[in-house]
Design a protein that fits this description.
about 240 residues, alpha+beta, 9-stranded antiparallel β-sheet, 6 helices
Length: about 240
Amino acid sequence: MKKLLLLFAYLPLVLSCKNQNRIDLSQLQLNETVESLINFDDAKTIGVETVEYPFCLMIEISDGANYTFDGIDLTGQKVFFQINSELLKTDSLTQQGGGHIDVQSFKDKNELADILQKYQAANTVYGTRIEMKTESLKKQILAKLESKYGKGTQNPNTDNGIYWNVKKEHKYIFFAPDYDRLIILNNTDLSKTCYWDIMNGTIDFGGCNQEVYTQELLKNTKPKKESTDKLTVHQAYGAH
């Protein structure tokens, strides 16, 4: 009986320690080093995923068991980290024929460093994406966001999308339940007037010059690839 009582006494401490070892994605500045956010034992890939976002290097964690969002367990959800890569600021959507995935696994920091160098990528992240596969998780995350930031702005391009421009934190937050995604970006080096991705469509934060914005996104496109029609749509991918 004493052993059972001791077990119950230590259980909260064990659970607390387990949670402390997890990374709370809601607390990130999104300028952390890639290495500091990765558990190299996790199943993960790094590379190009144009449907998620075509203009950066993307790390995909298959199971977010080592991550939380403001206390919410992310076990079973994919977690993504976005890394700036000048090499990928090209018209990859049309070059690769739409949805294109070119990823590889990596086992340690040396392999990670080699891949970052190959893509001329930063060694820090600037964004994270969280999969939200269930309605319950979507409701929990939205409640956390609204508690912290208030009611967001309705995304005119999707049925249920909401976004926040959190200037004091230098963050864009896109709640995109129609596509099972929460997207949080450090906007320090991003446009302050425009944003586009397939899941959100074009967002105008005020004074958006889409032609200038598109030219910046595609600044390393080879001259023969001049079409930018894919980026001039105002609806999100698949939205009606």
